[in-house]
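Supplementary Text 2. Reproducibility record for the structural model of the 182-residue chain.

All settings were left at their defaults, and a single model was retained for analysis rather than an ensemble. We include the record here because the model underlies the residue-level annotations in Supplementary Table 4.
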Amino acid sequence: MNNATQLNGRILWYDGDSSVEPEYLYEYILSGKPLDSSVFVTEFNKDIRQFNSLNQDVQLKQKTDFKPVKTDWTIPDSYKKIDVSTYILNKLLKELDKSSDFDQTEIEDRIERVEHELELYKEYNLIDILKVVIYIVEEFERNNVVWGTGRGSSCCSYCLYLIGLHDVDSIKYGLELSEFFR
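Retained model, structure tokens:
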């Protein structure tokens, strides 16, 4: 299951939806969390069918895949047309040129990491989000806006470091990419 995180009693999908295991549904309802179209069940059983037959307002459905993230934000056309792979690889070349401290193995590791991350961004349909991030970072730089050094699991993405979203070199500090894409 690449598009979701398995939690105790439920699945959190990367598009923001949740799937609740049928045996945890009662507990979920009692927690006060709303039952709406973003809540799914992990499987259909007799109890779920009965719930659906008694409740006309909310019909629980089973979710097996995620819906793509909507990326119809308003950004300049030049950013919509950016080849993200080329952009990030150029940033990597500048990073490697800045420092003579990297040996051949480290250079190869960084290239492999960028290629692997870009594959994951494509697999999760997040390339358009990277375009927005590139736009925001460049807009911040143009307007001398100061933002944080880095926060949370985004610091595990070397590509986001190269774009300039944060200042944490995840390879230097041995941060696992799986922390970001989980």
